[in-house]
Each structure stands twice: as C-alpha cells, then as structure tokens.
Amino acid sequence: MTDKNGFFDLSKTGFTRRAALKGLAAGAGLAMAPGFVRYSQAQSSAPIKIGFQSHRTGIGAAYGRWYEKTTAAAIKAINAAGGINGRQVEVIIEDDGTDPGRGAEVVGKFATQHKTDIVFGTLFSHVVIGSAPAAGENKMPYFVVSEGHHVASTKLNRYVFQPGITDVKSQIQSMAPWIAANAGKKVTQIFPDFAFGYDHRDYLPPALKAQGADVIAQIAIPPTESSFTKYFPQIPAETEVIYHVMVGPAVLTFVKELGEFYGSNRPQLFGFIDSLEAVDINSPGLEFLDGSHFWEGSPRYAQPDDTEAQKAYRAAVGIDDNGAAVGDPKDVSTAAHMFGCWETLYVVKKAMEDAGYKGPEDRAKLVEATEALKEFAEGPEHPQGPKTFNGKIHQCFGIQNISKVEGGKLKVVHKTKIEDGLYEPEGDYTTQAL
Amino acid sequence: MSEASPAKAYGLHLGVIALLFVLSFLLPEYYHGLLARIMVLAVFAMGYNMLFGYVGLLSLGHAMFFGAGLYGAGLAIIQLGWSVPAAFAAGLCCGAVLSLVIGLLALRTTGVAFMIVTMMFAQVFYLAILYFAAWTGGDQGMVVPQPARVLAFGATSLDLTDPTVRYMAALGLFSLVLLMTLAIVRSRYGRVLVAVRENEERTKMLGYDTFSNKLAAVVVSGTICAASGAAYALLFGYVGSSFASVQYSILPLLWVLLGGAATTLGPLIGTLFMYYVIDVTSGYTSAYLLIVGIALILLVLFFPKGILGTIRQRWLGWLP
Questions:
Q1: Cβ of B243 and A113 within 8 Å?
Q2: What is the ipTM of this complex?
Q3: Which end of chain A, N or C, is more open, meaning fewer C-beta atoms within 10 Å of its C-beta?
C-alpha cells in the first residue's frame, strides 16, 4: 500500500529520463568509490571453507595426525600463492573418531553448521562409506584420501571423489607384473580377515594370473588374533613369495614369529607398507624384513633421484630424509598415503578455478568441473608423480613404488607405469542426477 | 513413589512429543538433523531400558538386536530390493526372532553370567557379520542407495532423505515407542516386571511365571532395539558392523544410566545429554572422551539414579 502524499508517491516528482540517467550515473560513481569497492571485495573475498573430517581419535589417529600436518602445509602453500580464485582458504577440523556413525554426523555438521564449501580428508574405508550418504543428501562435494576401491566401485554417489590417491585395486594390479617377473611365480597370501584383506584376496589372483603366476594359498587371519605361528604350517612348501598385508598393532608380532618360523631360509617377502605406516622400519623384531619388498604410494625415505617438487613437498610438510618429523626421528610419518591430502587439495583448487566457484550455490558446478579433469602433471602440485583422472568413476590413477628394505631403509627399486593400474570402469557416476 | 494419574502421565509424554514436533520448525539445520538421529537412538535406549530398567537384567549384548534390525532392513533393500515398509518389517522380524532365541538361551543364567552370555552372543553376531562379508559388506559396511529410501503411497511418495521427512519419521517412531513403553510399564505386566526386578523369588511364590515374563521382556526389548536399527538404516542410509560392536552394547547402557533407569523419558534425556557433550567438547579437544568420562563420574556421584531418576526421587515422585 502506498501513501499518495507520502514517500512512495512518485506521481508528482517529475521523474524524467534525464533524471534517471543522472541517477544511474550517480549510482555508478558510488559503486566505483573506494568504500564501495572495499565492501564488494569483502563479500567475494571471504575465505573458502574446507571441512576436514579428521581421524584425530580412534584406530586412525596416527594417520589423522599426519593428514592434518600435510593438509596444513598444503593450505599454507596455496594461501601464500594467492589462495583459490583470489580467496584465502580456511580449514575447519572435526574429529570423526574413526567411526562411521560419527563420520556421517560430522559431514552433516560441516554442511549445515559450519557451512563449508567442501568436505575433505577421510581415510578409513568404513568412515568414507558411512559418511557418503550424508554427503550425497547434503549435496556436499566430498573429497576423500582413502585408497579404498569403494569410490571407484561407483557404489557411493556423485558427490564423492578420490582424485589424489590411487585405489587399492589399481595398486594391486600394478604390483603383479613386478612380483611375477622378479619375486616368484608361486605366491601365498596372508591377509587380515576383513575388508582391507579381502581387496588383496580378490584382486591379486587375477592380476597375477595375467602375468603367468599363481596364488597357491590364501591364509586369512582373524582380526582378533594376537599370535600367528599356528597359521604358518599352512604355507605350502613350494611357495616362492609370501604376500603379506597384515595391519594393526599385531604386525610386529607377525613379522617376529614369521622370522622365527623360517629362520634364514625364507621365501621372498612382498608386503604393503600400510602394515608399517608410522612404524619405524628399524623397530626391534622387524630385522626379518631386511631384503624384502614393499609397495609404497610415495617413498618414506628420500631417494637419490627425488624431484625438486618432491624435495619441496617434504620440506613443506616437515619430514626428514628418513620420513620422520623434522626434529623428532621417532615420529615416523605415514608418507605412503599422506601425499594424497596435498594433491587432493590442489585438485580441488584446479576444479574450483575451472568452475569459477563462488560459494555453496556452485557445488554442482564444482562436481562437474572435477569430473571434467583428465590429468595432473607431476610437479609442485603433484609431487608423487603424474596422474590421470577418470571422471566417470571419480578416481585417479598413478604410478606406484616398489621399495626394498636395505640397511634399515626403504630404497625404491621400481616405479610402475600409470597404465599398469588401469582397469575397466565398473559404472558411471555422471549418469546420476546432481 | 506415587503413581501419576493417566491424564498426568500421558499429558507429560504427549507434551514432550509436541515439544519435539515444534522444535522441528525452530531448530537450526544442524541440530534439526542431529535431533532426528538422537530420537532414533533414544528408541534403542528405550528398548534397552525395558530390560535393564524394569526387569533389572543387565545385558551387554544389545548391539546385536540393533544390528539385527539394521541388517534385516538394510539387506532386504540392498540384496533383495524390497520396499521401505517391507524392509522395516524384515528388520523388526529379525530382531524379534533373534531376541526370542537369545532370550531362551540367556535367561537360563542371571546376574554376571547373563551379562557375559549376552556379550558373547553379541560377539558371535558381530563376527558373523564380518565372516559373511560377501553379503554384509564386512567391516566396511554398505550404503543403502538414496533412490531406494523412498516411501511410496500409490502416486505420492515420501523421500526419507529429506530432512523434514526424516525428522518426522524419527519422531513418529520415537512417539510410538515412548507411548507403548509408558503403556507397558503402567500395565499389570509392567508391574510384574518390576516385581521380578525387586524380588524374583517372591514373585514366583505369588504364582507368576517369571521366566515367561522375562522372555517376553527380552523380545519386546530386542524388537524395539531392532526397530531403532531398521530406522537407522532407512533414514541415514548406512549399514555397518561397527553398530553391532561391543561399543554399541555399552552406549545404550550409558544413555539409560545417565537419563535414569526405569524412567520412560530417561533414555531420551541420556542420549541427548551424551550426544551434546560429545558434539560440543569434540570441537575444543581431541580428549573429549576424557571430559565425557568426568561428566559420567560426576553424574554417578551426584545423580546416582540418573538425571530423571534423581528428579523423581527428590521432587517428582509421580514421574513414570
């Protein structure tokens, strides 16, 4: 309702085209005035908020601590170089207790309370799978650094990505040619009787078969087990390679008892460094591993042929040549995995820049921009090595390292090719609605 | 302790339900979602309270009943492609059958032995989930696909992933179980359960078949917990073995102890309190479980009967 004699009555004001043009000119002048410029920038230069779902407590705490360190280093570097789309980046950390139930709550908290632009950083598979529905329902881009095959399996949803670390199926497939050619053709697998072990149980045999080698025995060890000697007689005598992926605190006992069982006359040993992440390779009881080989995503120990990018990355994160915290040799890092945080954040940066990302209203654009990415060149943003990215399955593929334990250090003896780890996509996230 | 009139007792509970309904429109987005989750888990606590609070049987294995509902509903949707109502019914049936079998076996024991037997059965259930990983997803668990979480009524449908629908569904289940619990504890059957808790031998001497009454309580308790598990799978879309681990057998015990054992509203208060303490303190320190522990010790020292239990003892003797 308007008052004919009042403020809203324009009928007697003589509002002409000239007056309108003057008004527009005045408005434009005001918009260009210093104060207004500052105000506009304040609106568009608010920091980009990244919700970091961290395993600060629970079984993943050792990983969580190093994931936080790596993330802090990456954010510092990104901000020092001008941030993302000219905006600084702020990280908000919430502890998920390495628990899937709490993980889902944390994703909800980021989406509805902190109102972060994305959620990032989860490692443990069950937490990723437990949190994925919350990410999908909140339409929250969820960038995990998990190495599980769950993202690439396309069983999650369109908002979940793993662009900074390869998945375990790809890693196992990449290892098979080297094992068959260098370690032996008859392989016995020893693995924990839960999902992490099942990936190895299921993906290694066909990968070895393709290389003319065979898995001749698979020994699953229950997660509740604390002594392993009784399982070793099940290892066939003709075994040429023992492929082991035991994880958790019992791994030291496992290696010690395996050493006592075989003495100096043992088959070749090949393992995944997941068993010994954050554990000093020179710990008492691990002597038996001398001369054995491990998969490493990124090498723990500095290598003679490290690139400048790798050296800069290690310095920025604060790890010494032995892969321990600078100034604290006992604080061994999770070097084989944590580079994924660094690289994922640079993928997020690239995707946000490609999408012209301004805020949460552009999350769908961010998803599409991430899906459109194809490859990441080796360099300061991707110090682990070059990668390709499959937007349909939201998964990157890269090189892997095979390292030999020599003189109490891990020395890289082989680097795989990206092609070694490629496999047929199992689905297509891009067909799902945003 | 005096008993409240029906109007007073039901009025209080309907008031709480009305308050939760109104909160749906007032709460900020995050707390709205959190309260939906709390209401579902409060149902779990109410199921636990039925056995622990009213019959005096301390079980350390109730995670298996929650897990039975969770996996019963989740597997029915994921592996068999059932609809939401059918999956929910499957979850309830799994919980009812499992609790009947466990009850028949475990009720042969009492006291500490009952605790240990229930804990062992729950451990068997948990390890079975890991063992049959090809179907259950093992320790990683499974996602219930978003398109499957839709409640269809002819041409119309309700999307359970929508925050408002989810809140109302959680409130619906919570209200139903709360009023059912109130009706049970005020019934003759409820009085028999309390009599068993207070003096089983004397109850037997009065001619009651205490085994049958306890077995019925185990089944009611287990089925309520399964309802909570089934609702969790359908409303939040994740089915995982961690919900069947020993931690989830201890949590409802803590929630009930905090809120007040043998009080109908205590489980809600306890779950709410614990959730908020963890949510707030975890924002400040990674040692939040230490703070939770201190809070629990203080509560045990100053509110030995739990929050509502102490209020009932000191001020409101009529609280059901």
A1: no
A2: 0.86
A3: N
